[in-house]
Amino acid sequence: MSKKTVLFACGTGIATSTVVANAVTEAMKERGITIDSRQCKATEVRSELNGVDLIVSTTQLPSDLSVPSIVTLAFLTGMGKTEALDKIEAELRK
């Protein structure tokens, strides 16, 4: 599997997206998937899509993006984390 690029978005593009990016990067590594993570503010997503395979966000995104996206708070609350990781893995293996 080639390296995948995941764009992590949150309100500020700093705090929450860093927590999620670190958690997802480590979890995907354990599942045999190497990712290149990038971060941005949710308002910057449209301008950051070039070369991105998946967007993972902790805040709502526009519905008409050309890249698959997963919006989840699982990495902040801990609830549903495994399911969120399964969805991310499934999308990256497509």
Automatic annotation (TrEMBL):
Keywords: Phosphotransferase system, Sugar transport, Transferase, Transport. PROSITE patterns: PTS_EIIB_TYPE_2 (PS51099). Residues 4-94 form the PTS EIIB type-2 domain. Transmembrane segments: none annotated. SUPFAM superfamilies: PTS system IIB component-like. GO terms for molecular function: transferase activity. The keyword Methyltransferase does not apply. InterPro entries: PTS_EIIB-like_sf (IPR036095), PTS_EIIB_2 (IPR013011), PTS_EIIB_2/3 (IPR003501). Its EC number is 2.7.1.-. This is PTS sugar transporter subunit IIB. It comes from Nitratireductor kimnyeongensis.
